[in-house]
Amino acid sequence: MTAPAYQDPAYTNGYEFTGGAGYALPTYPFKTPPELAGVSPEKPYDVVIVGGGITGLTLACSLAQLGVSAVLLDEDNTVGVKGASSRGICYTQRSLEIFDKLGIYDRIKAKGVEWHVGRTFAGNDEIYNFNLRDRDDFKWSQQPAFINIQQFYIEGYLVERIAALGHIDLRWQSRVTGCAQGADQVTLDVETPEGAYTLQARHVIDATGSNTPFHKWCAVPMTSIKRDDRWCIADVRFKEQPPTERHTWIEAPFNDNRAVWQHLMADDVWRIDYQMAPDADPAYVSREDVLRERLRRQFGTDADCDIVWVGPYSYRSQLLDHLIVGRVFFMGDTAKVVSPFGARGGNTGIADADNLAWKLAAVVKRHAPDGLLQSFNDERHEAATVNVAVTARTTRYLRPADGVERLFRDATIRLAKHYPFARALVNTGRMAEANPYTRSPICSYQSPQVGKSVQNVAINWVDGSPAQLNDLLRWTADHLLLLWFGPTNQATLQKLKQLTELAPVRVVQVLDRSQPAQARETVRDSHGHLAAACGHPGWVLLRPDSYMSASGTRLDAGFLKQLSTAMALS
Amino acid sequence: MNMAPNFKDADGFYEQLLDAHAGLDERASALLNAKLILVMANQIGDPALLTACIAAAKAAD
Q: Does the pLDDT of residue A4 top 60, yes or no?
């Protein structure tokens, strides 16, 4: 293999929209790594992340925030893909909460587009619509249900945030060409413009994406299903904007009765996805004149627009049997590949990173044993399995096999126009959510909230100034957070205090507006939202990823056991 | 799962079903059946019962 050939980039920091040519992405400079400067480290690196996409960068940024050193190797010198495809566009409330914790949410909010209304059409009829503002399950959080933004913007914000936080050695133009597992470490071969080197790592995280070479290197067993569904993605900018709503056509008259997606992004750019015939020629459907004809049929002859990016798209469904092989961890698209419907690709990769980051931090800092890392597989494999199954159902609805599958879809469309019950069968994508963990070995299941993510609710500091749950989670870092609701007695206060000296846990007493503060750390749940989001418990144990590991009413004998379970200490 | 007769008027229902299909071509008839299955499935609702219905229909060959 030859070293990748790149032009020496100037360091730029902007994302310029350049009309028909798409975007000029930021580029990051190659720096000579210590191994090539003759100062190789004596010990293996604790953590090496391979791949600087949204998953790898989220993990790197999370580790940086937790004060854990790591190396990130990326074969490219920019975010996004050369050619400026925007890839992911739709970010869930849970992802936005994670980005808030990492300190880049305000930039995403300022740049992106919030949306609440989705409409589904078949032929010329609207079958149904939804408004996410009506949904109860989004209401506690400080983040909205969804923000749409081009993926590379978030990646760029993460790179800049990582640079500000420190701890992470970002190595651009560094392509991993080999991987060998030992008992205590992994050896990686790396190629760069200045030559090749090897490095050793105690934990390697493969975040290189769906075409990862690590699957072969690690001989990972998996299930993979190739689909024949073909799409053409067009990112376009109109002179006159369509409404700020998600529109989906199951059968679009202007696309030979195949599906069409119309979704907005930052910079007034619209993502229009056209479903193609399974035997369509990818080069032909992506030709500019062919695309412009399609746009004319959809938006009328006078719709004036710039084409930002256009490309053919197909997908497969893939799931590894196990997300950890030796000391190599698979996350994001290397763990599973799903169809794009429901935004379950990038968003679940972000959740993978959030799940693994605090566990790696706790293990590296010796707050928890190595065994804690196994729960990454237990929890995220369950999530991946669900996400593969849910997206496969959507795929089957949107690309029904000829014959009875198409017959039943026709039946749902006709019924949905008349009867509300049938709208539940119309499946244009079930939007990603914070997957619950129903059988995690580090959760103690005493209440229905355990194993679920607690939303980022608003609270108040003792002086009444505004705060949110994320403020507490940032403060607890890789420790657990014990929230004690309401007043208590001196004996319990004493026990709680001792607890923080014995175990990686921090304790916060949660009081209403008027109850007097007793514990050292106290917050006010002025509107009762935190108690409601936690299921009105006596106490809860929250993890740094905001998932609830245990909950109870009193500090009884079982409590210590539940605390140990949460960190895999017993 | 009730496999004993539950109809109040089995012959009446059967006649209605055939009459609904009268004059339809194969495709229109298949579509009517598909719509009917979905309407009836929603009346049942219960997932375990629906699973049992599908299994019972498949088993009777």
A: no
